[in-house]
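User: I'm writing a tutorial on reading structure tokens. Could you give me a worked example: one chain, its sequence, then its tokens, then a sentence or two explaining what the tokens reveal?
Assistant: Sure. Here is the example chain.
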Amino acid sequence: MNIARGLLEYAEQNGQTITDKELLTRVTEAIELDRAADQILKKRAEMASEVESMADKELAKIERIHLKMPRHMQDKVKIEGRTVTIAQEPPMMRQGPPMQFMEMPPPRIFPPGMAPPPTKKPAINLSGTITSALKAQVSQNQRSLGTGSAPLATCK
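And here are its predicted structure tokens:
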């Protein structure tokens, strides 16, 4: 574009004093610019047709997927001509608490005169006590049987 503007400015300023050699050079440049513009237009038309074919393929693919969708999902996707629209769900509008909690305050907020629930006490670890109680019971059984601390016999 800058070359074309330069040629026009040169022709306006030096149109009467141009030599034959300069005229030939300027006409040759103008012809080259015209050819380049034609090539750009052809390339643009080719690219537009490629984009059109790609869009047709994508639309066909979307339509195939749309036909395989469950009915409730097909209602969310609308295909009108070459336009695909996905329905936008409005955000859930909260209009107060659910009906079952209308009389109750929200969690962690206690009405006047009501204290929070007591905290849970940590569990007592009785595993050592149980183990020692079992050992004592085993040793008592061994004493009553008269085996003392001898190992128990195994059956084959």
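What the tokens reveal: The CA atoms of residues 71 and 77 lie 10 Å apart. The helical segments are 2-14, 20-68, 71-74, 127-145.
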